[in-house]
Amino acid sequence: MKLKVLKIISLSCVLAMGITNMASAATPSTQKALTHLKVNQYYILYTAPKAPYIDTKQRLMVPLRSISELLGAEVTYNAKSKMANIVFSNHQLRLTSDSKAAYLNDMKITMDTVPVIYENSMIIPLKIILDAFQIKANLNSAYGYINIQDSRLLKTRMFSNFEEFDSSMNSLVDDEEAFVPLQTKITTTAGKSDQAVQVTITAQNITEKSIPTGREDLHPVFLTKGKYLLDSDGAWPDSKARIRPSVKKDEKIQRSWDFSVQNNDPLLYILVKGRTFSQSINN
């Protein structure tokens, strides 16, 4: 049976996914990042302006914005005082750039590091968030990422919107934990009004068996402030299904996606599920 999955969708309109012509005078910019974080069913591969990363003291650092929009906390930031206020699950946490002092419900906490500013965004240690809001996490020692499982998380309107749209293929999912993404490479080329974006994800088959042709579903979601972009698999007249070749046991694969974003609505997040389907969906 041949099935078709979903095209790229916007919160406000439908977009066409395809390779964008890059301006010849533009200089591509490339970011590479390892996978350090998983929240519930999603691996968090990128959070603007910088993917989650391990600092020199082995702390996992994340952009403040991701705490608000990914975890579902209410966040305000005062650029003048460089102070952030985070409210989640009836608790309030205050952080200040370049200060080890934090305040949880007005009780002072001394951190072993400080929030830093990167491209006008505050980057904070994830551990202070986990401890303050009693969010349980563990380290996946085999692949080196922090695994967070908490039913309170990922409940924002943004997640509800694209998960509702994306749910049509859920009945065909055979294994939700078939792949672990290892590395992401993002190359952007600026145009006058938009950016051409190429995202390449390297992932490993962890099913301990070979995966037949058409069943691999390394399933990313690319998010801007106003749009979410998903795989295009022939669901529209001018779209073509992504090729899904067979995958050997323990094999590492690379998959790439090309699209464009407006300069005033840049790429904010890349999330991915590493799944397989119960049957082939190749055209």
Automatic annotation (TrEMBL):
Residues 1-25 form the signal peptide. Coiled coil: none annotated. InterPro entries: Cu_amine_oxidase-like_N (IPR012854), Mao_N_sf (IPR036582). Pfam families: Cu_amine_oxidN1. Residues 47-142 form the Copper amine oxidase-like N-terminal domain. The keyword ATP-binding does not apply. Keywords: Signal. The keyword Signal applies. It comes from the Bacteria. This is Copper amine oxidase-like N-terminal domain-containing protein. It comes from Paenibacillus wynnii.
